[in-house]
Amino acid sequence: MGIPIDLDNNTLAESPLAWLLGSCGSAADRELELAIQAAGWLAEPVDADEAVELADPEFPPAAVLLCHERPTQRHGNLTTQLRTLLPETPMLMVGGSWSEGTRARPSTTGGIAWRPWHEATGWLEGITPSDDGSIAPGNRPLVVTEAADFESADTVAAALHAEGFATALSTPPCPANLTRGADAAVWVGGQLDGLRANRLATFCQRHRRCAMVVALLDFPRPDEAWLARQLGATAVLGKPWSPRALAGILRRATGESRSQPQRGGLRTHDNTERPDAAA
User: Fold this and answer.
1) Which of 129, 170, 217, 237 is most buried by its number of CB atoms within 10 A?
2) Separation CA 117–CA 128 (nearest Å)
3) Contact 28/97 with Cβ under 8 angstroms?
4) Rounded-to-integer distance, Cα 147 and Cα 157, Å
5) CB 217 within 8 A of CB 236
6) What is the DSSP string of 72-129?
């Protein structure tokens, strides 16, 4: 049973629904449900044995939180089944009381974003279902991150989330409605060899409507930075880069995109316009 919620019927009808599967520990469960309520969501604990039967793609929950009471706990086949039955529903793996004050994570996340239980509502606040069913980031700029491996993408996403951005992962590809209308995109690529160059070009094309597409590279040479821009990146950062510097670039770009219509030229990291063609 969920915690009684003191809301009127109209508020209940308008509030997005989050399923809670599993437990974060008895004390954490109660605080998590209250925090979800305070964020304007409805929290509905769902028994793992019933989740697959209840999963209806025509009437899906707005989000699914998979709670882990222990670091070694796994939801295994249930996660796979839910992602198949609810392909458009954002999912978050939530660490229980053991995760407080640590970035330790379960032994496997299955490609699903992970947060400790006390950060789960921040993730929910970043995804607000719109009237058309798409996911909008509310007052936070939405940044999509992609990398060759999930851990790298999630590391960047977690850093940006701490800087006040709503984040979504496209590694592996996240629900299309979660990236629709994204304000900016960040691609983590290491060295820009032939295969990664093709991936960057695809990523830039997919997110060409974003105000900013940033490529994070490992100590890029000038010719690699030039190539990244030719492939569609509007800014290039090389190691060592800091989350604060990245957030500053994105904040300037997304703040401008929300207040002004986009112009024809692409923009560099200092917000000066440059032509699409190479100089």
Assistant:
1) 217
2) 19
3) yes
4) 11
5) yes
6) T---THHHHHHHHH-TTS-EEEEE-GGGTT-----S--TT-EEEEGGGHHHHHHT-EE
Instruction: Tell whether the torsion through CA atoms of 236, 92, 119 and 13 is positive or negative.
Output: positive
CA distance 142 to 168: 7
The residues facing 238 across adjacent strands are: 217
3-state secondary structure of 31: helix
> How far apart (Å, rounded) are the C-alpha atoms in residues 41 and 11?
10
- How far apart CA 179 and CA 32 sit, in angstroms, is 26
CA angle in degrees (0–180, nearest 5) for 24-29-33:
130
pLDDT tens for each residue of 38-72: 888 888 999 888 898 999 888 889 899 998 877 76
* Eight-state DSSP code of residue 236: E
Q: What is the pLDDT of residues 172-191, one digit of tens each?
A: 545 555 556 678 999 998 88
Count the helices and strands in the chain (H runs, E runs).
Answer: 10, 14
Q: Which long-range contacts (CB under 8 A, 24 or more apart) does 5-11 make?
A: 5/37, 5/42
Q: Is 214 helix (H, G, I), strand (E, B) or coil?
A: strand
Please state the φ and ψ torsions of residue 242, each to the nearest 5 degrees.
-115, 145
CB 136 within 8 A of CB 181: yes
Q: In degrees to the nearest 10, what's the CA dihedral of 166, 169, 173, 178?
A: -10
Q: Which helix (H) or strand (E) holds 34?
A: helix 26-38
| Residues 165/250, Cβ–Cβ less than 8 Å | yes
